[in-house]
Write a structure and sequence with these properties.
- The protein is mainly α and 129 residues long.
- It has a single domain, classed as PurM-like, N-terminal domain (60s Ribosomal Protein L30, Chain: A, 2-Layer Sandwich), CATH 3.30.1330.10.
- The protein is built from four helices and two strands; from the N terminus they run αββααα.
- Strands 1-2 form a two-stranded antiparallel ribbon.
- Helix 1 runs parallel beside helix 4.
- The longest helix has 16 residues.
- The protein is globular and about 55 Å long.
- The protein starts with 15 loop residues before the first helix and ends with a helix.
Length: 129
């Protein structure tokens, strides 16, 4: 690969059309999770949040990120992906609560070697307990 030749997303193995289909397929699910302060919509390059800080004397923002770790292997072996999204959110919320902070928003990040619309939608959808 020569730098001056350029490489398309498609040539690099990225299916932009399929990614856009996933975003459209999960938009309503994601919108259901919005809390007051969320600005914008899914699909941008960053999350926008306008916190209401009137009840805080000296506000400090706490951010956390985590992964599901080896639970992903179990989900893959069982072809049961509806449980790992909620586990991911719970681990992130736990880490923020452990700092004595209140979770206000969640930044998503979904990495995969190959985009499977059904699997990825199930991760976001989760399971109603």
């Amino acid at each position: 690969m020569k730098q001056d030749d350029g490489v398309t997303y498609s040539e690099a193995g990225v299916d932009i059309e399929k990614a856009n289909q996933l975003v459209q397929g999960i938009k309503n699910m994601v919108k259901e999770t919005h809390t007051p302060g969320v600005i914008g919509d899914l699909g941008g390059f960053g999350g926008l949040f306008a916190p209401d800080l009137k009840d805080y004397e000296r506000p400090v923002m706490v951010a956390g990120t985590d992964g599901v770790g080896t639970k992903l292997k179990i989900a893959q072996k069982m072809n049961e992906h509806e449980t790992i999204g909620i586990d991911l959110v719970a681990m992130c919320v736990n880490d923020i609560l452990a700092q004595g902070a209140k979770p206000l928003f969640f930044l998503d990040y979904l990495a995969c070697g190959e985009l499977d619309l059904t699997v990825n939608k199930n991760i976001v959808k989760g399971r109603k307990w």
